[in-house]
Amino acid sequence: MRSSLSFETEQFVLRKLHRSEELGFWYCLSGHPTLPCNVLKFKSTTIMLDCGLDMTSTLNFLPMPLVQSPRLSKLPGWVLKDGSTFLDKELKECSGHVFVDSVPEFCLPETELLDLSTVDVILISNYHCMMALPYITEYTGFTGTVYATEPTVQIGRLLMEELVNSIERVPKAQSASMWKNKEVQRLLPAPLKDAVEVSMWRKCYTMPEVNAALSKIQLVGYSQKIELFGAVQVTPLSSGYALGSSNWIIQSHYEKVSYVSGSSLLTTHPQPMDQASLKNSDVLILTGLTQIPTANPDGMVGEFCSNLAMTVRNGGNVLVPCYPSGVIYDLLECLYQYIDSAGLSNVPFYFISPVANSSLEFSQIFAEWLCHNKQTKVYLPEPPFPHAELIQTNKLKHYPSIHGDFSNDFKQPCVVFTGHPSLRFGDVVHFMELWGKSSLNTVIFTEPDFSYLDALAPYQPLAMKCVYCPIDTRLNFIQVSKLLKEVQPLHVVCPEQYTQPPPTQSHRTDLMIDCQPPPMSYRRAEVLTLPYKRRYEKIEIMPELADSLVPLEIKPGISLATVSAVLHTKDNKHVLQLPPKPPQPPASKKRKRVSDDVPECKPLKPLLSGSIPVDQFVQTLEKHGFSDVKVEDTAKGHIVLLQEAETLIQIEEDSTHIICDNDEPLRVKLRDLVLKFLQKF
Q1: Model pTM?
Q2: What is the predicted pLDDT for the residue at 3?
Q3: How far apart are CA 148 and CA 648, in angstroms?
Q4: Angle at 418 between CA 414 and CA 420, to 5 degrees
Q5: Is-contact 187 124, C-beta < 8 A?
């Protein structure tokens, strides 16, 4: 049986310190802190962490109505101050704002900062952070593996499917690109003038590309240890934010990096966050914090319910722009408890999405990924989410689109949950056009990803009421401060947005990460060198080699042994083996094959240890006939001058040099005197 021990020698430590590829490098490919895309180079592996897609770029485009909109089609083209009209086909003006009249485009992660074909694996934290995956896997030469939990993959597929469906079912012949020219863009009004990375904006991918990307995913479970090339081990942990959402531990034998993205300590429907496993991290990378640090999620849910009830009682309709998974589960659960007491029993609730049915079904079958209370309901048996009962009692109805059955069942006043939260595509555009002219109706924003004022801009002037109730359950700065004190990482790395107060609240120094040492920050297209303190490699030593070692005690409690061995490395695992025996001389003059060669094992010189006490050494020199000995102190040790013999002896902490003028007998004599003060082993 092979014995295993941590074998650390100066030789190997120095070897690692001087190999730059063994340092950790952090590449930031996305400037959006809650939609991250980063690459970690760690122990000869290249790991991408998340593939977030920044969709805020879509706010610069006109909405895509499912039904021809006379209002949008009549918007005037935008004209330059000098009267030039060459952009009037691409840009339209609405209530003082200028929008691109084209299919919405998304801001991709950086693809030029490093060669993405060299990425070995991609680790996904949650379904919101995988929306750029098809752009990465299908257009960069990526040939590695993607790791994610099953709920992340299944719900991520639904989000991508809804996105593709919403855009493809409204074909737009026109494609605008002239405005992206840098010389033209600087002439445009804000926010188009200030839009960043417009050269990285791309149209939406297709379903074949989505399917190809998802085929590269390997499913993992919480606390499952995955070996990467024998060098690194990665482990997903529950982050408490969404069904299947994960934080990741990336570690070798002696270094540990924790990646915390999109985590929550609130008790909602997912499994609680695993904090204990984050302890003893050399580096903790922190991203995906709450976008609304001053808003309390419970308070926002209360406001949501009261505004919804007030609108319906007054005969108005309520529109809730939302994603097909996530917060909508919690909102439906709150409404389930609120409907009867608020007198809303007869008000229809509609959930409209091409993936509505799948989303509601998935939420009921992923029992193992739910919090304990919801898991126990599965075994009663009882559905973990109450929206199952809302569907059974016809209080909640779901439809793939506004066409077909919905047209026949549609009754007002009602409450409609539909996408997309940007208000630029999806069924939500139809309801904004339909209900926007009446002050009886209300649109309630619960998703924090988009500025609600920017989302509403192309619908102005708007008569319907607008209520902003952003519900973001991710970690706030108070919770982060407490978490860091508990897990105590040596270093914290985070987006630069978290190291300073929000621009609109510059006095709120409590709305930033405060820790010691101060966090290292990064921004888009920036590369950081991560600070690791330990530089060791684990090496196994074969039992027969261990048996041959003869330790020599050099001081009480400390013994050393020389090791003469062959270092065998395969799959990033290192083994010390006995050196080969010297080859026997050939019996004949038959020519050897190259493969018959074995490395020669030359006899090793003994190693020396100890220190040379200068005063005693001088006395020894004088006893052996050397007179006129002079000693000079240097920064590294001492110089002993034998003036009569014109000889110099340099004594330093880790070396001794004898410098004499072509007098070999003298050098040998002095060497022997030096060796009397040192131990051989």
Answers
A1: 0.83
A2: 35
A3: 67
A4: 145
A5: no
